[in-house]
Amino acid sequence: MTAMDCQRMASDKGLWYLENLVCPIDRTGLRFDGERLRSKNGRCYPIVDGVPVLLVSSGKQTIGLANASIERAQGRSDVIDQRARELYLESLGLNDEEKAEVARLWKGKLTAIDPVVAMIIGATCGNAYKDLTKKLSLTEYPIPSIRLTSASTGDALLDIGCNWGRWSIAAAKKGFSAVGIDPSLGAIMAARRIADELKPDIKYLVADARFLPFRNERFRAVYSYSVLQHFAKEDVRRTLLEVSRVLEPGAVAKIQMANKLAFAAFNSKQAGNRTSPKNLRFAIGRSVGVLSGHRQHADLRGLLLRTWLAMVGFPLHRAEIQACAYCLGGVATIERCYCADAIGG
User: Fold this and answer.
1) CA separation for the pair 191, 212 (Å, rounded)
2) Is the CB of residue 165 less than 8 Å from the CB of residue 231?
3) Distance CA 222, CA 95 (A)
4) Cα–Cα distance for residue pair 270/276, rounded to 1 Å
5) Cα(234)–Cα(245) distance, rounded to whole angstroms?
6) How far from the centroid of its chain's Cα atoms is residue 62's Cα?
7) Does the pTM of the predicted model rise above 0.90?
8) Is the pLDDT of residue 87 over 60?
9) Where are the domains of the chain?
10) I need a surface site. Which of 7, 20, 39, 152 has the fewest CB within 10 A?
11) How do 37-39 and 219-225 pair as beta strands?
């Protein structure tokens, strides 16, 4: 813990953290003890360069790099990638060759944009952006337009799996007060560097979607792009229930998954407890039969969503579900929108 960390925690952003964050396990309030965030029950969470790291260290992580984030935040010097320790390379989803290239670009100041972003654009933005990966001539960050509108300036939006923050920035441009979370310490640090450069009103922290470290009913919107398809079914169920908890009544959540079957998550080849596309089709066929025609296909999308939500234990008795399909970079994407009542039960 440095003097700069103490200064950051005394800033307006630091005060927001103290007012709105809770322990991700017991959900009690947090206080800053001069070094760490501490819950009323004595659980402690490190602060790295002013960024709270609120990952739950016990149990299996949704992605392996979260373990590197935890170890680096705990001060383990043996895990630090010394090629560019200030970039937290050990907690980025890059192979060793890519990390070496990021370090080279960083030290040589060879890119106009952050070198971490230059390396991971294709992985985080999708196929439509692959041609921009490692493109040293890129001078601007590819910020999309988010399909949400703030009812009033300053509405709080949570970006789950924000990585380097492109959707958080997009939300800030629409008038939201955005909060981005990701289990990658390196990605969050890149997001903060970009926020320092572009000056949007965004708060970032390292956290797990299954254990959201926020007070109840804190957000007017929750957004997540191409994240949950990587989760096991039980982890998705946990995440959705957490989304319900932190949404205000009548608020909205939008979740995109970049594969027309991936909202079933769920590739049986990757994990035995995930729902396979074959099983999803069987469940749909058994419940609604085979549909054809444009109108019926539209209906099928809604039924797919309802069936999938039911499969992960989602309460549907008051659900209002909208669905649409569109194409992005040659990949069919399903977008679903449901209100807080739908997921709150």
Assistant:
1) 19
2) no
3) 31
4) 10
5) 17
6) 12
7) no
8) yes
9) 3-132, 156-344
10) 152
11) unpaired
